[in-house]
Give the backbone structure.
Amino acid sequence: MTSDQRIPITVIGGYLGAGKTTLVNHVLRSTDERIAVIVNDFGEISIDEDLIVAADSDKLTLANGCICCSLAEGFSAALDTVRSAGVLPTRLLIEASGVADPNQIAAYGHTPGLALDAVVVLADAEQVRRQANHRWVADTVRIQLAAADLVVVNKIDLLAAPEDADALCDWLTGVANGATLVRASRAAVPMDVIFGPELREHAAGRSPSTVASSARAAHDTAEDVFESQTVVLDAPVPLPVIEALVANLPNGVARLKGLVQAAPPASADDANAAETAYLVEAIGKRTSMTPHATDPTQPPPRWAISLISHKGSLAPDWLESRLHERN
Amino acid sequence: MGTNQPFVIYPARRVITINPAYPFGEAVAVAGDRILGVGSTDELASWGEHRIDDCFAEHVIMPGFVEAHCHVMSGGLWNSTYVGYFDRRDPQGLLWPGCTSIDDVLERLAKAAADMSDDSQTLLAWGLDPIYFPGERLVASHLDTVTGDRPTLVLHASGHLATINSALMDRCGIDETATSPGVARGGDGLPNGELHEPAGMMLAGDAFVDMMKANRTEQARWRYANEARNAGHTLLTDLGTTQLWDPDQLNNWKKVTGDPAYPARVMVAMSNLFGAVADPAELAELCVQLKSEQSDKLRFGIVKLILDGSIQGFTARISWPHYYKPPPGHIGNGLWLTAPDQMADLVEPYHRAGLTVHCHCNGDEASEAFIDAVEEVLQRYPRWDHRHTVQHCQLTTPAQYRRMAALGMSANIFSNHIYYWGDQHRDVTVGPERAARMDACRTALDSGVSFSIHSDSPITPLGHLQTAWCAVNRVTASGQVLGPDERIGVPDALRAITIDAARQLKLDGEIGSIEAGKLADFAVLEDDPLSVDPMALRDIGVWGTVLGGELQPAQIGES
């Protein structure tokens, strides 16, 4: 399996009015990556006009060259439409409807050629607790939150006091068991948190965090509270070390991504035992280690692991120290 | 005055007019596409120059049946092989006996495969209902024994699942490495050929897509109307299957209904079900525009919305205590397909444009949400005679019916469920008490809610004598009466399948009863529904229809 050839899918879910479309617009505005967008319900989509270069009856052509279309004719038809554009997308966003179970949409991530990256669920900071206790939609809203790898606690600036935000996040931590929580206003979440840290030597295409802060000073927002650390790996790392790292990530880690060479176990005396490359990813409760095929005709990739964490939650050398644990 | 044009008098065994002021006649006179009058042959002859046609002398003539909820795929699916549990007639009138065991299903598929000349062609089948084979499961290894290397896909009756054979799994690359939760696995941990929900079914690639595309053809539209004619229907409602903003689909309807031989009138609903290009206000505007383009045979003016799923699929929104014996792992209640607190805003533009909104509500939570939305919109924009309709209306409560009456709403009740799934509703989905009050025609009648009854074809077979039989007798497939107190009389049921269905569609001024001046649309029956034993209602033969004065004999094939 060559993970690097599959297009990563990000599912964007959350109840009506939580800010899903705002997040889609924010993403399209914040990166030059070739991102295609599939929406559950075309009637509701409102991509900002300056991000659109052409509008058809059944699709929009985005400024990045990719397509935005709907699930109207089913997912395979939507994929065909996406592929009909001149350029192939490097990422696919699927905006779920306001009542959809994001897990149902995430199931499309198992389509050949695609790979689910993360389920991002937005919560309206002002409304989500009321919605989660509403006589009719309580179960819908709770199912959505429980499906999240990353919960964007949106419109945090509308809360009266910072203590309210803390209480809300405590409550959300319980409902969205295991998900990473990010506070935001106008869905302004750093790209590294949505898509994971950039691994390439030159972060081609992705702008650095140029997100303008729209929050009131009293509230911490996403761009203020995350920091990253990266370890460049000069030598293969023993497989158990990588496995232990991924399995025991502390709560402060929002995302982790790495391209690593795993050293064969020390006991292996088989002459054929060679290093195996893995793409390692973690977001919320979702972790994966995917065998990574390297192309011998290309220069070797840059072996490294990066993580994004809540500011102050980890020692600056935490990742370094974990990777050099040798038992 | 009188009529200048020569007219035809059809003496009949009896004419049942569904006009309370003149309920029965000996004959009906037709001038062009309209009814000149009902009465005795002598009375009608006094209008002037005429011809007497005795072809219906032994028949009973009723107003043509009006189906206010079915789907055009009812015609398209017949490109595939029928493997459902119940007997069903295809649009050519051929009887397809029900497949009542997995062996029957396999035998049907084996024959279909043997009849195909091109070895590479995929065998498509539809209508499999595993709810009738408890404890057994049709899987790929079964299919392989009769289909060999021919790729095969069997769509389940629910539309939410499909079972494919090994050849199709191979072609689509579905193997032990499959990661999709939509790929079901057998006891050995390997994919067993069952694909769940769109995310799973789309892995079958073109096979699934081809099946859906077959619903868009002219042939599908013709078969849809042929099946209707064979059952005595003169008006069908395609409730939310057509994307009217797509010029191809719209023109396709205009083309077929423009053919004088096309044997039905069709009301095509505006729908946002499959993702519309426009917001509701734009769709409302388009629908109003289409009303100005309509013809005698092609009608517009209603809108389909959808709130929840199905009861037998455990996806309908049902209030506490929710489901009776849901399958293991069920989340507790059904699914909202539209956010309930969005409904009023969705209904508003259609309501303001003078259109009628028909909303799919299987569970009582869904009915409540729609009734709330209509009440809210009526407060914002009071409007007389909107006729907004709760579709399916399966678990609508007496209190909800009283609200519907107060708000001027209609009900279209899914009476066929009583027969086709009534046993399962009593034993599994909602339990005995609530099953007894499902599809509550008597409550609707007593509450003063105007109602129709429907088949939702292809979900259950089209045929209003069968649907009326369900509402009158409430007998399940196992032969038990479910909720006898919700039964209605035959005259009530006959109104529900004619004038009250037309009323729901705002066509009751033109069709739905046999009265001077109305369109000459008749169901021509071999026996009298008001005289036969109510349990024999569904066995009455249908000669065919008269549509706008044209005789449309049913096609009855050999079985």
Q: What stands out?
A: Chain B is about 30% helix and 20% strand. Residues 217-508 of chain B form a domain with the TIM Barrel fold (CATH 3.20.20.140). The mean pLDDT of chain B is 94. The interface with chain A takes residues 173, 178-183, 197-200, 202-203, 205, 208-209, 212, 243, 245-246, 272, 274-280, 283, 317, 331-333, 335-342, 365, 369 of chain B (CB under 8 Å).
